[in-house]
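Hi everyone, sorry if this is the wrong subforum. Our group has a chain we'd like a structural model of before ordering constructs, and none of us has done structure prediction before. Sequence below.
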Amino acid sequence: MTQQGADRPAPPSPAMLDVEIWRGGQEGHYEDFRVPRDENQTVLDVVTYVQRHLAPALAYRFACRVGMCGSCAMTVNGRPRWTCRTHVARVIEGGRMRIAPLRNLPVIRDLVTDMSTFFDKWQAARGRFVGTEGADAGVGHEPARVRPASPERREADAAIECINCAVCYAACDVVSWREDYLGPAALNRAWAAWNDVRDDDRTGVLRAVAVAGGCLNCHTHQSCTEHCPVALSPTHSIAGLKRASMQAWLRGELKS
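Answer:
Right subforum, don't worry. Here is the predicted structure as tokens:
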């Protein structure tokens, strides 16, 4: 009499994935991990598994997990990506994967970067709305109307969906070369602001970006457009700022 189930073959061992993950600060190192492979597994799933089961002190950012917030952006096999929307099957190379923090930003710890410079440049590009002030803003003042079909509205609509994930900033070679370069995200936002005809200081936008480290320093490599997870074209926006700045300069609006 044989024991029930003795003749059944043992279940196959789960497929494994070899992962290198950056640990430490700016001068850190890569650490090796082995993670079970799952169907439809994302890179964020891999990082989460490592933190929950293998390295509880691993630092990384995420929030929505569904491609809405952009906070989970990391460098995967040399390319900046949203890890929650990147499936392992699309990026694995030879059964291995390397995950690092975003390029061009100081590393706080592990996969977490300091975004302060990124947001400081966003502010420096003057991408915020400036409304009418003083007597013109009183009762009876009618603000400029924005026609949905106007060229300005179409340009603003095409650039407005940026969610500050910094993928384009990490992909930009000019940011790597010039610490003062405002970067594609900030300039893209400035282009959206300049196309808002309700803004009371549109020339101020051009003054902010037509400076050393501004839109004229873009080399048009189009890395920002190639990598943007929401299919924006900062390259197009920066080209628009270049044209608008030159036209304003020829009219004498930017001369001191």
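For your construct planning: The mean pLDDT is 90. The domain at 16-113 is CATH 3.10.20.30 (Ubiquitin-like (UB roll)).
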